[in-house]
Amino acid sequence: MRIDSKLPNVGTNIFTTMGRLANEHNAVNLSQGFPNFGADPKLLQLAADALKGGYNQYAPMQGSVSLRIKISEKIETLYEKTYHPESEITITSGATQAIFTAISTFIRPGDEVIVLKPAYDCYEPAIEVFGGKTIPIQLEGLNYTLNWNTFKSAISSKTKMVIINTPHNPAGTIWNEIDMLQLQEILKDTNIILLSDEVYEHIVFDGKQHESVAKYPELASRSIICSSFGKTFHVTGWKIGYCVAPKALMHEFQKVHQFNVFCVNHPAQEALAKYLETPEHYLTLGQFYQEKRDYFLNAILGSRFKMIPSSGTYFQLLEYSDITNETDTEFAERLIKEYKLASIPVSVFNLDNLDNKQLRFCFAKTNTVLDQAAEILNRI
Ligand code: PMP
Ligand code: GLN
User: Fold this and answer.
1) Residues facing residue 344 across a β-bridge
2) How would you classify the pairing of strands 358-362 and 223-228?
3) Residue whose CB lies within 8 A of the most ligand 1 atoms, among 124, 169, 260, for a mutation test
4) Sequence-distant (≥ 6) Cβ neighbours of residue 353 within 8 angstroms
5) Between 20 and 30 A from 163 (CA), which of 26, 86, 183, 243?
């Protein structure tokens, strides 16, 4: 039988590839983004309580009511915008499902979706599966800034959606108020839907603030905002995320969601609802990861790698042009095989695999592992 692939050019993703290579070579693994330390025992206890407490049948299609109420309160307190728990919030299987379902809900064959590169890897295949066309725009320089004129001229009558991501994976950059106002101005009076990937919303450093789309009323009115408890509470394996949007957009989203998964893991949702009763659990996350970033950067001060400190996320880019001319994929592979240290080459996320000679390192690791990585980086 001949199989007619809808994604002929998609292979195994970079996180799986580098993770597998890291395991094969017993390398210190700073490649895929996940913490190597456990979640708060209080959260684990709440999960155990929920399992034993009878939350083992289907959750409501939109998600557990108590969790949706807590999310609504959190957004209201942080971003001064109210999303109604009944009609404007859906709990999803990680942000990945929220993104996939949002794209599947709105993208038809021929629709254009503007994606800023480097881009997290789950956006483009989803657009392609539903017949949409990605319009990629490369962010410029080692600061990965957007040229707003380029952005404006990329918009056409076929533009259906724009996807943004702040704090940004893999760049570690964040957008400020001016960026948001620019975007708001450009999208004003269009029918363009904004998909805002804010999974690292609580991981912002150096006293700066996360600029959620929710804070900008005109933007919020056209936006689906996605977030992830995996990132925020060190439980990437739970795959619980959520998205919020104005009622009319969420109504369409839920039409697809109910046939996509219907609902997601119920006991985990109940545990998260209780855990969210203490806002410190997410409000202290930025400080926690800022200390990790500083610990890692201080430990490699003497190395030949160059860096701009990450402003958010748990990723740090290191530039190696003083060390070798190898492409970033070649160098990343050699680092694993010869030095036993795994990272992610940034070019895989860039337009036409632009190679800025940078590798991405995940610093969501114990200080012992960060020390091991630093010792290797200082030797290179
Ligand atoms: N968006 C970005 C930018 C991410 O880095 C990730 C995963 N790390 C996701 C979405 C997916 O989140 P989840 O694991 O909750 O599906
Ligand atoms: N978001 C994680 C990262 O950027 C990876 C998640 C995945 O493997 N799909 O490393």
Assistant:
1) 360
2) unpaired
3) 169
4) 347
5) 86
Rounded to whole angstroms, the Cα distance separating 273 from 85 reads: 13
Q: CA separation (Å) from 163 to 92, 117, 221? A: 18, 10, 15
Q: What angle do CA 46, 52, 55 make, to 5 degrees?
A: 85
Domains of the chain: 14-32+284-378 (3.90.1150.10), 57-278 (3.40.640.10)
CA dist., res. 237 & res. 17, Å (int): 18
323, two tokens: 């060390």
Is the beta carbon of 241 within 6 A of some atom in ligand 1? yes
Successive 10-residue mean pLDDT values, the chain, 380 residues: 94 91 96 96 98 96 98 98 98 98 98 98 97 98 96 98 98 98 97 98 98 98 98 98 98 98 98 98 98 98 97 98 97 97 98 98 98 98
130 lines ligand 2 (CB under 6 A): no
Closest residue by Cα to atom 7, ligand 2, is 15
- Taking the CA of 123 as reference, the closest ligand is 1
Q: Whose CA is nearest to atom 8 of ligand 2?
A: 15
Pick the residue whose CA is nearest to atom 12 on ligand 1. Answer: 95
Among 117, 148, 173, which Cα is nearest to 352's? 117
Residue listed under structure tokens 């996509």: 260
User: What separation in Å is there between the alpha carbon of 323 and the centre of ligand 1?
Assistant: 31
Classified as helix, coil or strand, 118 is coil
For the chain, give me the number of helices (H) and strands (E)? 15, 12
Identify which of 32, 122, 74, 11 has the alpha carbon closest to the alpha carbon of residue 281: 74
Q: What is the model's pLDDT at position 114? A: 98
Interatomic CA distance for residues 226 and 200, integer angstroms: 10
**31-72 per-position pLDDT tens digit:** 999 999 999 999 999 999 999 999 999 999 999 999 999 999
Does residue 228 line the site of ligand 1, with CB under 6 A? yes
Q: How many CB atoms lie within 10 A of CB 7?
A: 11
Residues recorded for the chain = 380
User: Which two three-digit tokens encode residue 36?
Assistant: 């190597």
Cα-based distances in Å from 7 to 113, 126, 130: 17, 9, 10
Structure tokens belonging to residue 57 = 């049948």
Q: Where are the alpha helices (DSSP H) in the chain?
A: 14-24, 41-52, 65-79, 94-106, 123-129, 148-154, 177-187, 217-220, 229-232, 247-260, 266-275, 280-283, 285-299, 328-334, 367-379
Strand partners, 358: 319
